Amino acid sequence: MGVVATARRKLVPGLRNSTWVYREALESLVTPATRWLDLGCGHQLLPTWMQDGEAAAAALIGRSPFVVGLDQVPSQLVKHNTITRRVAADIARLPLRDGAFDLVSANMVLEHVADGARLLKEVGRVMSPGGRFVFHTPNRRFYQIALSMWVPQAMRRRAASLIEGREMDDVFPTHYRMNTRPAIESLAAAGGWTVENVRFVNSGLTMTRIPVLALLEIGVTRLLESPAMASARSNLIVVLRKD
C-alpha cells in the first residue's frame, strides 16, 4: 500500500464523496406523490462512478409519478438515459407552469448562478406551497474554492474541463453567489423560503495523482472533519421549504 493510500486509510477512513449525501437527501424526499424537477440535469441524475448509480437513479425516478429534467445544453439532454421528460431551457427562465412541482433538485448547479434571488423566485413560482428545493453545491469558504476565486474565469473553466474530463460546452462560469450559509439564509428569507437544513460535507480527494499535494489534502481534510471546522468543508447539501 502506497504512502497516500496509507495516509488516507489512517487519517480519513470514512471519507466519501459528498454526492452520496446528496443522493441520500433525494431518497428521503422523493415519494410516490412527488412531482419532481431536476435543474441542470445534464446527462445523468447520479454519476457513473457510483457502482449502482444508474440503477439507483432509475429507482428514484420510477418512484415519482412525474419527473422533468431541465438543462440549457441540448447535447447533454439527449444523452440522458433515465429521465424521459426533458426540457432545454435556462434555469432562471423556466418554461413551466406555476405550482407544477413538489420537489426541485440541483446537483452542482448553484455555483453557476449569477443572480440567486432571481433563481429562487423562479423556482418558487413553479413550486407548490410546502415544496422543497434541495441542492448540492461547493462551499465558497472551502480553501480550494477561496483560492480559485483569484483565478480568471476562462482559466477556471479550462481547468475544470481538464480535471473532470468534460467538454467545454458543459463547463459554465462560476459565481458562488449562493455558496455560504449566510448568503443562502439571506436569499431564502427575502424570497419566502424556510431553511430546513444546511449540511457541510467533505467530499472525495482530488489531488491523488500528485502524492505531495494528495498528502497535504488528506491532512487538511482530516482537520476539516473536526466539528469546529465544519463550516469550511468542501460542499453544502441544502434543503429549502417554500412557505
Task: Describe this structure as you would to a colleague.
There is one protein chain. Helices cover 36% and strands 21% of the residues. The chain has a single domain (3-242), classed as 3-Layer(aba) Sandwich (Rossmann fold). It has 243 residues and is an alpha/beta fold. The N and C termini lie far apart (52 Å). The longest helix has 14 residues, at 211-224.
Secondary-structure blueprint:
Elements: H1 3-11, H2 19-29, E1 35-39, H3 53-63, E2 66-71, H4 74-77, E3 85-88, E4 101-107, H5 116-125, E5 127-138, H6 143-148, H7 153-164, H8 181-191, E6 193-201, H9 211-224, E7 235-242
Parallel strand pairs: 1-2, 1-4, 2-3, 4-5
Antiparallel strand pairs: 5-7, 6-7
Helical segment tally? Answer: 9
Outline the low-pLDDT stretches: none
User: Radius of gyration in whole Å, from Cα?
Assistant: 18 Å
Distance between the termini: 52 Å
* SS-derived structural category: alpha/beta
Biggest sheet architecture: 7 strands, mixed
How many E strands?
7
CATH class: Alpha Beta
Helix content: 25-40%
Overall tally of domains? 1
Considering the chains and any ligands shown, give keywords for the structure.
Rossmann fold; 243 residues; alpha/beta; globular
Quick summary:
The protein is of the alpha/beta class and 243 residues long.
